[in-house]
Amino acid sequence: MGDSRFGYNNDYLAFIETGENEGLLTINFEYISGGIWMQTYTQVIGKSLPFDEVKLAAAASKGKINAFALPDDDPLKAKIKAISQEGLIDQGLGVMSIRKTADGKWERTNSPVDRRITGISGLTDNRYLKATGPAVAVFRKQQAQGYIDKLGDRIIGSFQNCAGGTTPWGTVLSAEENFQAQVPEPVYADGSSFAPETLPFVINDRQVDGRGNVFGLAGNKYGWIVEIDPANPNDYGTKHTFLGRFRHEAVGCRAVKGKPLAVYSGCDRYGGHVYKFVSKGLISNPQDKANSRLLAEGVLYAAIFTPDGKGRWIPLEPKTLVNPVLPSTVEGNLVTLPKRPEGGVFKVQTDEEAISFKEKFSTLGDLYTGNAEEKQGAILIDAHYAANAAGATCTARPEDTDIAPDGSLYIAFTSGSPGGNGGPDKQVFQGPLGETPWEYGWIVRLVEDNDDPAAISFSWEALALGGEPAAGGAGFSNPDNLEFDKDGNLWMVTDISTSQHNKAVPSRIDTEGKPLGQTDIQGIFGNNSIWFIPTSGPDTGNAYLFGIGPMECETTGLFFSSSDEQTLFLAIQHPGEKHGIRQNNAAEIRKLVMTTNDGEEFLQTRTVPLGSNWPNKKSNEPPKPAVVAIRRQDTQS
After folding, report:
1. DSSP string, 11-45
2. CA angle 394, 411, 276 (to 5 degrees)
């Protein structure tokens, strides 16, 4: 693509039409699956990397190496740099020009706008990314509590690009999600980064992470929403810091003439929050590319959901009162808060600890330092932990936020289980009968009061719950990316953990005679898949299976060709992630106890391939992430 290559583990897709049956396909490249990436790198790319040598060196230091501290002439540093560079090249974004042929197939046209924004753009080619908003004042600091990369407001690359959104004016918003795998996430009170050594380079048989370490990347420059104009070949991305720094997995953009711009996003972590940015300026023409400037100034809010189907938005700004989330209200009884004066975060597991924190700090401004702009920038840089301190609702891994044709917001909450750093609110995120935790997820509809994008209150309701129909679910598990068609129907893909795909369930009772837990029976849902869900009429909330993904993959990036909706673009991410290359048609026979919609149990036998050769149709070929175009062969709407 352009002067680079197609990346790895493609995710969000956006198709911007530039003419009849042609346009620009923008593609996110989220991460590399370390084990399968190393296994297939030479075969796919055609050159080798010193994986075995570096793994051996890392094993001598518990698998971790602070490559940043190694002398520049150290051969080991050069090898780590080569591996890290190739891994970061396979992340970021790409723009690809395509057109539909007379027989209905899509082909590449290789136009001058084709290009890659990689994880190292700017490192050697001066294609730095830009930034707007208050965090820029932090980036430009010459002295700080923590680490400074000496690049000012210039930013090297974008990586961990997961979900995203498309603006009405034809730009694409790309969400940097699990940046903490490559650079340090914690920051000091002034918003400056922890040193590169706090996240060393890590390599073993299944992992190649901490790749920002050897380059000395500053952690506070990652975890943002990146905007690019696919049609501008010189645009390598702008990170809009007023949209907050957290593990972004979604962008929903609502532009109403005469109203402020509203941009919604979710933080995909256990206990992550739902956010809304509201611009200071107003929309005059939703199709005007000048609207991008509205992203540079406004207010970032975090959502509070209440069990009665209501909610409100609280601003993340210095004057906002500290009112921490109480551990007793969330699954796992754990909340993380900003640690002062040391910087970083600490875990609280009792309400008494949270109340003590509230007594010590009055406002968010008490938790951060600097002049007014720098303090606001530091809050945005530390948005997740600032939101915890302000009392925003801990939610169930919000993995997509999408605007329906009627202007309402739909949110995919992927998993209600707790994790190592938090969990969802137990009063809000419940199963059909009030069960907690509810692993299988929810799709929720949020409506702003008075249908106003800038409203500070809202109402919400569940459209569909994940889970077995016999238990009150809609038949899917772990909803992820969402997309609407012109009729307002919702299309959804799932994000079941690869480790759970088709996992055997020979019985639903454990050795002590107790029913198995939800995650223990998750294998019944099979591969990740694609679903169709009406949002109006008699079938509202019913889920209909449209397609099943390849083995050990995640289905991502749903996007329709907008003029005729005859093509559904879809990304297939990490096929073969667990077992790698499927060797000699290897497979296992597995037994799974299933239930009918009425709750009657029956035993199903599955032949489960081990690994994948997709998209190749030959045995023993390496699996490759890829983008597919699913086309109608008729012309019906």
Report:
1. EEEEEEEEETTEEEEEEEE----HHHHHHHHHHHH
2. 70
One-letter amino acid identity for 359? E
Residue 365 corresponds to which tokens in the numbers above? Answer: 């401004």
Question: How big is the CA angle at 464 (ends 463 and 468), to the nearest 5 degrees?
Answer: 165
Q: Are 140 and 151 in contact (CB under 8 A)?
A: no
Q: What is the pLDDT of residues 470-498, one digit of tens each?
A: 999 999 999 999 999 999 999 999 999 99
Spatial contact of 195 and 184, defined as CB atoms under 8 Å apart: yes
What's the half-sphere exposure (Cβ side, CA atoms, 13 Å) at 170? 14
Q: Residue 635's pLDDT band (boundaries 50, 70, 90)? A: low
pLDDT in tens, 159-194: 999 999 999 999 999 999 999 999 999 999 999 999
How far apart CA 318 and CA 377 sit, in angstroms, is: 10
Q: Which H or E element spans position 77?
A: helix 75-89
Instruction: For tokens 């109203």, name the residue.
Output: 259
Residue 636 binned pLDDT confidence (cut-offs 50, 70, 90)? low
Contacts of 308 (CB under 8 A, 6+ apart): none
d(CA 508, CA 499): 18
**Please, what's the b/e burial string for 581-590 (b: 16 or more CB within 10 A of its CB; e: otherwise)?**
bbeeeeeeeb
422 DSSP β-pair partners: 419
Q: Is the predicted pLDDT of residue 564 greater than 90, yes or no?
A: no
Amino acid, single-letter form, for residue 198 = T
